[in-house]
Amino acid sequence: MRFIDHLIVGGSGGAPARKAPVFNPSNGTVQAEVALGDAALLDRAVAAAQAAQGPWAAANPQRRARVMFEFKRLVEADMQELAELLASEHGKVVADAKGDIQRGLEVVEFACGIPHVLKDEYTNGAGPGIDVYSMRQPIGIGAGITPFNFPGMIPMWMFGVAIACGNAFILKPSERDPSVPVRLCELMLEAGAPEGILQCVHGDKEMVDAILDHPAIGAISFVGSSDIANYVYQRGAANGKRVQAMGGAKNHGIIMPDADIDRAVGDLVGAAFGSAGERCMALPVVVPVGEGTAERLIEKLLPEIAALNVGASLDPSAHYGPVVTAQHKARIEEWIATCESEGGQILVDGRDFTPQGLEGGFYVGPTLIDHVTPDMTSYHNEIFGPVLQIVRAPDFEIALALPSRHQYGNGVAIFTRNGHAAREFAARVNVGMVGINVPIPVPVAYHTFGGWKRSAFGDTNQHGMEGVKFWNKIKTITARWPDSTPEGGNAFIIPTMG
Ligand code: NAD
Q1: How far apart are the C-alpha atoms of 492 and 288, rounded to whole Å?
Q2: What is the pLDDT of residues 82-97, one digit of tens each?
């Protein structure tokens, strides 16, 4: 049985006390075991990070950028192998796995420009003989705790920026698909990052708690489900750390009566069912505005859904693959049953679905449910599977209110040909990321990613300048170089610049 060990300086020190199985969701077999670490192991990783961080921060930013350039080259060279490994543990299809890695690499590309980004602010002559400037200095040791659904992209969101800024970084990836995160850390070392600058520790709650409580870790970035995000935020902040914690989602796609319906349906099918719906930026709720729009939408959706091919993650003809675990499959099927019992009308039922020859795998067929209403618990909660719920809205204002009032506020999309409606919607909707005729509005790497309400705890977003702010402390220097000794005695009032 393949064993996935921690990647820390000096090695993990032998067989772990605890391990967890890593499944191949396409056929349901256990394909590897991953070590589960504890506070003592974390202490060793932190000690190595502390030793490495000072010299790394002192290296000029061009040198750190060169390591990022080389890392990008190495990941690109290994893209096929990494994508297959990712697909085999996560269940997403290989083409989608490449997208997962590529979106992370785009953050690394952003980090390659770190010398420019870190230049910061300067005011010449803020007062007589006075200059004011600010400098960003790395936090020291940062940690990242990541979810199963983007094992390539999300670790790179975090360590790409943190390391380029001069921090040492400890990654705690999901124990369900840990192999690609480990490979990424190996490639970063191969690219020239000094030992200790990027380490990977595995584990569950025990390791997460050790990270949250470790006095030498200054900043923690978390992505996962909302209850755990909130817990991480509260406990980390109570320990005096900087914490950003991204949580769950329930993104709505609003279809206005004037939308290009064929295009919107194509986008919707990809966004609702791609990656088996296991994306925080999936579109699991569609809101047709007006009864006529709803009827046209359903008429076009049904054949598109019927044409979906669900198969093994390594099958190039599959549109999407299995979900991550048998427990997750069972939970999704329970939500479908709950929605039905709450009055949802099931138009396509993906329960008890097994593609031929893939009997042991964790598959859920595409599911379409009509007449879902905002009072249903299945609407209120994240299902995180290939389930599309239709919530009919009579007009624009009600459609706008649905995502605005929902507990989650990660992403939202509107499909329309009316620029004014789109503009109004973008300005007024109470959600962090908005797509206008764009189904999955994940911002590019030099902008920032983050939701509102229960989709994110903490103040700063991932990557872009928000990421740079998160992984650095700002120091502001006010310097006076007078050309002569000023007249007068001590000043007992707050200094002003005159
Ligand atoms: P999860 O919350 O179960 O796990 C996330 C991380 O927390 C993992 O590393 C896991 O080991 C750890 N963890 C699990 N249980 C814990 C506990 N009790 N105490 C402390 N740590 C614990 O999430 P997941 O199932 O891996 O990922 C799916 C979730 O992540 C979905 O809710 C999805 O919406 C969300 N997500 C959000 C974003 C975003 O940017 N907002 C992006 C991707 C995924």
Answers
A1: 66
A2: 999 999 999 999 999 9
Tell me the domain boundaries of the chain. 2-247+455-477, 252-436
The sheet with strand 198-200 has its strands ordered as 198-200, 168-172, 141-145, 219-223, 242-246, 456-457
Rounded to the nearest 5 degrees, what angle is found at the Cα of 447, between the Cα atoms of 441 and 451? 55
Q: Is the CB of 100 under 6 A from ligand 1?
A: no
Q: Cα–Cα distance between 112 and 100 in angstroms, integer? A: 19
280 Cα nearest atom in ligand 1: 34
Q: Decide: 150 in ligand 1 pocket, CB within 6 A.
A: yes
The alpha carbon of 369 and the centre of ligand 1 are apart by a number of angstroms equal to: 26
| Phi, then psi, of 419 in degrees rounded to 5 | -60, -35
Q: Would you name the residues annotated as active-site residues?
A: 280
Query: Which structure tokens are listed for 208?
Result: 């997460």
What is the rounded CA–CA span in Å between residue 179 and residue 197? Answer: 19
CA 363/CA 328 separation, integer angstroms? 10
Same fold, 2-247+455-477 and 252-436: no
Residue 481: strand pairing partners: none
To test the pocket of ligand 1, the residue of 4, 204, 213 to mutate (highest count of ligand atoms within 8 Å of its CB) is 204
Q: Summarize pLDDT for 457-490 with one digit per residue, the tens.
A: 998 999 999 999 999 999 999 999 887 665 656 6
Which ligand 1 atom is at minimum distance from the Cα of 324? 25
Question: For residues 109, 110, 116 and 117, what is the CA-based torsion angle, rounded to 10 degrees?
Answer: -160
User: Helix 205-213 and helix 39-58: axis angle, to 10°?
Assistant: 50
CATH number of 252-436: 3.40.309.10
Residues 170/42, Cβ–Cβ less than 8 Å: yes
Q: Is 155 in the pocket of ligand 1 (CB under 6 A)?
A: no
Q: Is the distance from the beta carbon of residue 157 to the nearest atom of ligand 1 less than 6 Å?
A: no
Helix (H) or strand (E) holding 183: helix 179-190
How many whole angstroms from 189 Cα to the centroid of ligand 1? 26
- Phi and psi at 103, nearest 5°, equal -65, -30
Q: What are the two backbone dihedrals, phi and then psi, of residue 244, each rounded to the nearest 5 degrees?
A: -120, 130
Fold classified for 2-247+455-477:
Aldehyde Dehydrogenase; Chain A, domain 1 (3.40.605)
Closest to 344 in 3D by CA, of 302, 293, 388, 383: 388
Alpha carbon distances (Å) from 474 to 23, 217, 236: 44, 18, 20
Instruction: Give the Å distance between the CA of 410 and the centre of ligand 1.
Output: 15
CB distance 50 to ligand 1 below 6 Å: no
Residue nearest atom 28 in ligand 1 by C-alpha distance: 224
Over residues 296-341, the pLDDT tens digits come to 999 999 999 999 999 999 999 999 999 999 999 999 999 999 999 9
Q: Ligand 1: does its nearest atom lie under 6 Å from the Cβ of 145?
A: yes
